[in-house]
Design brief:
- The structure holds two protein chains of two kinds.
- Chain A is α+β, with helices and mostly antiparallel strands.
- Chain A contains two helices and seven strands, in the order βββββββαα.
- In chain A, a hairpin with a 5-residue loop joins strand 1 and strand 2.
- The longest helix of chain A has 8 residues.
- Chain A is flat and about 45 Å long.
- In chain B, helix 10 runs antiparallel to helix 14 and helix 12 packs across helix 14.
- The chains are: A alpha+beta, B mainly alpha.
- The interface between A and B is medium-sized, with 27 and 32 residues.
Chain lengths: ~130, ~325
């Protein structure tokens, strides 16, 4: 053990999670904005659904882990639980009725924030 | 200053810690015989004994930390606490290489009530203030109990814990020290940010949560449990912190307290991976006999939070 060099990679891809990056001072996001890095290790979002891009905010935990998982879906809220269901982006209305009663749909209570949610799972906790 | 005693045990403990240390058989006998008789009495006595190793008390004797009778009493109360905790856990053996995945699975399977979810959507201002006062008992010494463990870890886990702790302690910037960020949030709200200011109203569940991390941190034998506890704590922080941010914003709480929780969204999204894989994963490989205790510590963290959440929601008359 004492003779070996320990592995300590600069970039770690967490299974089903973010990309950890060590020892950097700034990150440029997809819109070209520069974000200063103040901590020794940062977690960069890989599911594209974080509410705090480019950083991971844990939202990936609400998404099924399969790498082939559909990227479009609805995040539903029941009580304090949050669940995610895959949805064909062209079939939202039909899917909403599959998962919700018409009364719930009319009241808008169990769908967190409508169709845009599928593309921004980071909003999954904004049901107010 | 010592908190208000909650029964015979804590009252006698404070009396003991005010007196000059010496080996007196009458004290040692009393350590074994004095019984707790009030709600939170035993929890407060042990909390106070642990605090001698943190900030201490102005009215404690300056050498109270190594008072022989106090050390005997601490060993007895820790023994009773550990027996209670192990009695709640019925974990199966795990292969050292499977520890990180087992930690993730345990956290995913946790279905305890979420105080953050209540704050997010429904809590009123008074309930949030009470939660913050209860949380302050730990949050004002955030990360300190895990710091005790550093010298007791093998090379890889030690380096990984320091990588995590460096961030907890503000990456060298005192303005970003996590416990200090919490104190700033308390000040902005108008709560008292002095260390231990609200211990007199701390629920027994809160005192026990604090006693658990202190005991795990202070005993080398329990290093695996300490790191498992840390892994579960970090893995259940990022998403709840997001809900806390949204709840605090809903109720117009000051930006300083929002900042404390928003810092934890991003920080703990990193820390949970460091804790599960780089700390607990390598500790299990380097010291395989720690594998079971790592999971015991993680279970205890989740179980303690569930007990606290149930107790607090119960006092509010809120269904879990």
């Amino acid at each position: 053990m004492n003779e070996q060099q320990f592995e300590h990679p600069d970039i770690v891809l967490c299974p089903g999670g973010p990309m950890l990056v060590r020892g950097i001072t700034s990150v440029q996001d997809e819109q070209g904005h520069i974000h200063a890095v103040e901590r020794p290790v940062v977690a960069l979002c890989r599911c594209h659904k974080s509410s705090r891009l480019p950083w991971c905010d844990g939202t990936h935990k609400a998404i099924p882990r399969s790498p082939a998982a559909p990227q479009h879906g609805l995040t539903l809220c029941e009580g304090s639980g949050v669940g995610w269901v895959p949805v064909d982006p062209h079939q939202y209305a039909a899917h909403l009725l599959t998962y919700l009663s018409e009364d719930e749909l009319a009241a808008g209570q169990n769908v967190l924030s409508g169709q845009d949610l599928s593309l921004r799972c980071g909003a999954d906790l904004q049901d107010g | 200053m010592f908190p208000k005693p909650r029964g015979s045990l804590s009252a006698w403990t404070f009396e003991l810690l005010r007196t000059p240390p010496g080996v007196r058989h009458v004290d040692l006998d009393r350590c074994a015989s004095v019984q707790a008789d009030g709600e939170g009495d035993a929890e407060l006595a042990l909390w106070s004994l642990h605090e001698l190793s943190y900030a201490g008390f102005e009215d404690a004797h300056e050498r109270a930390e190594t008072h022989p009778a106090a050390m005997v009493l601490r060993a007895r109360l820790e023994g009773e606490l550990e027996a209670r905790l192990r009695g709640r856990w019925s974990g199966a053996p795990v292969a050292p290489g499977d520890v990180p995945d087992a930690l993730v699975a345990m956290v995913e399977a946790d279905d305890g009530p979420s105080l953050a979810a209540h704050v997010h959507r429904r809590a009123d201002r008074e309930q949030v203030l009470e939660l913050l006062r209860q949380r302050s008992i730990y949050q004002l010494k955030e990360a300190d109990p895990a710091a005790w463990v550093v010298p007791r870890l093998p090379v890889r886990a030690k380096a990984a814990l320091m990588e995590l702790q460096f961030d907890e302690y503000g990456d060298g910037d005192p303005n970003r020290l996590h416990s200090h960020l919490f104190a700033l949030g308390m000040d902005a709200i108008g709560l008292r940010s002095a260390y231990g200011a609200y211990v007199d109203e701390a629920m027994p569940e809160v005192l026990e949560m604090n006693n658990v991390v202190s005991m795990f941190g202070l005993q080398r034998r329990l290093r695996g449990a300490a790191m498992g506890h840390l892994a579960a704590f970090e893995a259940t922080s990022s998403v709840p912190s997001r809900r806390m941010v949204q709840g605090l914003e809903r109720l117009d709480f000051p930006a300083a307290m929002v900042r404390y929780y928003s810092e934890h969204i991003e920080a703990d999204a990193v820390h949970e991976h460091l804790a599960a894989r780089d700390i607990c994963g390598t500790l299990a490989l380097d010291e395989p006999h720690q594998s079971g205790d790592i999971l015991f510590g993680a279970f205890t963290c989740l179980d303690q939070e569930t007990r606290f959440a149930n107790a607090l929601l119960d006092t509010w008359g809120v269904d879990a």
